[in-house]
Design a protein that fits this description.
The chain is of the alpha/beta class. Helix 13 links the parallel strand 6 and strand 7. 46% of the residues are buried.
Length: 437
């Protein structure tokens, strides 16, 4: 089974970093409850992201030529001189990023995050610190600049992924125990981040990854974040440089984390392009992931792994477009919603915005739908997609929607909107043992 980033981080931490980090609990590693206080201006900077809910993740690099996932170089121990030859083959057309941005907009996404440098060490941006970058190799262009322009053209927020781990840099493997090598490598890394934060205008998200084999002190992680915020005062920063950051990053799971959090997930089983991976998740399953994130106050960052030419496999395109069509009619149940204290339902989930409760049905019940544990009065109800009124009664703690059509009026999920007289809170029998929110 392919290890997730989270699992790989744990393995590498145990093998390379040493006991001080390896002894962290799963909750600390998964939820990002790490050293450091909340970054200054967090509430001001994070609000747009809380409202956005849905973003596109893009894993793209030399590994896309091989078509054997983003970890191919490391998993297969490909010699560096052999791997470097891929740089002359990586010559994507100039319209690749425009197609992604248009697809993200069609899918109802509000922001994008692209790999500027993955673990392979190849920079998709123009760097003065190395010639191992797209502008100085086969492509002959700054691919990050093209991505930024494409996202802005579609009015999408711009995010940069940057892997701290670097299999190409000669000092990376030495950096744990060799102080001189560590200083050179960390200076190189800080220099890259300074370039990324200085050369592309306003950047909205910085998404670190894989802070091995060095600890927070070695990376100078607090200094790193201070520099980023000095250059980009409105940016939000994730938690994968051993600092708490602005948001945590559970992976391949919609289990909620504390504070602000974002679940990153794949459309099939792979982050980068993997030619034989046909295990595409249905659009319905991915919409369920999205609304479950929204219910618990989180975001959903859904990955595409383009081919080397930038094209996105058609099964992924079709699923994203289907999600977008549903969100055109039902987006109010997702965007700008808040954490919902309505955790239990046997045929779907609930989200809320203010005093409005959205009942999102995975499995259509037919004539009658009963919601238990309702601690508010409902004033009106309607189908979100059509606006048609839904008859309802309240009997004790039960909210009963009745006279429903035999077949679901919307696909793949049907949403019923209930306007309430106060924040909707559930205390159903099944939730009596739940911890206090």
């Amino acid at each position: 089974m392919k290890l997730s980033r989270r699992e790989s981080l744990k393995v590498l931490t145990m093998g390379v970093v040493g006991s001080s980090l390896a002894q962290r609990t799963d909750a600390e590693t998964d939820s990002g409850e790490r050293a450091g206080e909340a970054l200054p201006g967090h509430e001001r900077r994070i609000q747009w992201w809380r409202d956005a809910k849905f973003g596109m993740f893009i894993h793209w690099g030399l590994y896309s030529i091989l078509g054997r996932e983003a970890w191919a170089m490391g998993d297969e121990d490909i010699p560096l001189d052999e791997y470097e030859k891929l740089t002359e083959q990586f010559r994507p057309p100039p319209d690749a990023a425009r197609a992604w941005a248009k697809l993200a907009r069609e899918a109802g996404m509000r922001y994008m995050v692209m790999t500027t440098k993955h673990h392979e060490g190849f920079c998709l941006f123009d760097s003065k610190l190395t010639d191992y970058c797209a502008s100085k190799r086969g492509a002959g262009r700054d691919l990050v600049q093209e991505y930024v322009a494409a996202a802005r053209a579609e009015n999408l927020r711009v995010g940069f992924y940057y892997s701290l781990m670097d299999w190409h840099h000669p000092d990376w493997r030495l950096s744990k125990n060799d102080a001189a090598a560590r200083r050179r490598f960390v200076d190189y890394t800080h220099g890259h981040l300074r370039e990324l934060m200085s050369n592309y205008g306003k950047i909205d998200v910085l998404w670190y990854d894989m802070p091995v084999p060095i600890d927070a002190e070695g990376w100078r992680s607090e200094e790193m974040n201070r520099m980023v915020l000095r250059l980009q005062p409105d940016i939000i920063i994730n938690n994968r440089n051993w600092q708490a950051g602005d948001f945590s990053t559970p992976e391949q799971s919609t289990q909620a984390a504390k504070g602000d959090w974002e679940s990153c997930m794949t459309i099939n089983d792979s982050w980068g392009y993997l030619g034989g991976d046909e295990n595409w998740k249905p659009a319905k399953q991915m919409l369920q992931n999205l609304v479950e994130c929204a219910r618990d106050g989180g975001n959903y960052l859904l990955d595409i792994g383009p081919r080397a030419d930038g094209s996105v496999p058609q099964p992924a395109v079709a699923r994203l477009q289907a999600m977008g069509k549903w969100l055109e009619k039902n987006g109010d149940a997702v965007y700008a919603t808040q954490r919902c204290r309505f955790p239990h339902g046997n045929i779907g989930v609930f989200t809320r915005r203010g005093n409005t409760l959205y009942t999102i049905n995975y499995y259509w019940p037919g004539d009658t739908l009963t919601v238990g544990g309702v601690k508010c009065k409902v004033k009106s109800a309607r189908f979100l997609a059509t606006g048609l009124a839904v008859p309802f009664t309240q009997k004790g703690s039960q909210l009963i929607f009745s006279g429903l059509p035999a077949e679901a009026p919307d696909h793949p999920l049907t949403v019923i909107v209930a306007e309430c007289d106060s924040e909707p809170i559930q205390e159903a029998l099944s939730s009596k043992a739940d911890p206090v929110a």
